[in-house]
Write a structure and sequence with these properties.
Layout: E1 6-10, H1 17-30, E2 38-42, H2 45-54, E3 59-63, H3 80-86, E4 90-93, H4 96-101, H5 106-118, E5 122-127, H6 131-135, H7 139-159, E6 163-166, H8 180-195, H9 199-204, E7 207-210, H10 215-222, E8 229-232, H11 239-258
Parallel strand pairs: 1-2, 1-8, 2-3, 3-4, 4-5, 5-6, 6-7, 7-8
The structure holds 1,3-dihydroxyacetonephosphate (13P).
Length: 259
Amino acid sequence: MSRTPIIAGNWKMHGSLTFVKEMMSELATMLPAKINYDVAVFPVYIHLHEVINTKPEQVWCGAQNLSEYDDGAVTGEVSGKMLADLGCDMVLVGHSERRVKSRESNAEVAKKFAQALKYGLTPVLCVGESLVERQSNQTFAVVWAQIQAVLSLIGVEQLGHGVIAYEPVWAIGTGETATAEQAQEVHQFIRSQLAAKDVTMARQIRLLYGGSCKGSNAFELFSMPDVDGGLIGGASLTAEDFMAICREAKKLMNETQSS
Ligand code: 13P
């Protein structure tokens, strides 16, 4: 089964209204009207409205986080209901920067995943191990515990309505990319674990790779059988760099479709 790759730009805490306007107009010029891959961008909350109002139709917009609550006395948080109301399509949950800096637990991340689904948003569950965990052979255990928390809360069928992004923490923003084989090994692990619970869901769910992905390494990574695109940080901050990655996805899809 062929899965459509997603090229997702996580802008993190970067940008300004001027940046958003320029990016959207550049993407509108550079992106063909018909694409055979999916594209999404994830700006900070306060730039979502501008992105939604100015983005080309083929680009999805997502938030970088959401509250685990519906609404109420939760100062500083934004709910899934509000994101859906604004017109968001997707939302990141459990990015490692939030797991580490805001101490989000697996259980909290699972609640956020469920909240996203409740309001019709596609959650992108970010998972991944630290360098110390990799060096002590804990990669599979860490990644599976992160996924298992969501499975225990909502089950395999519901998890299948989201996307999983494998982002080894040691590869994020470091310029050190996981090799295509390292990425594939973890992606294959995730897919086979899921297949033990639900074969159809495991075949369909899209597994993105994130961590220093750029135009020069995207093709090799995306060519791996269980890698279905990328969650891009630094290289999503200029239209040129981001489009270079999109072109690799297109190349791969063209090759797959003609073979
Ligand atoms: P970099 O592409 O900058 O390494 O960031 C990856 C990431 O964290 C995307 O969510």
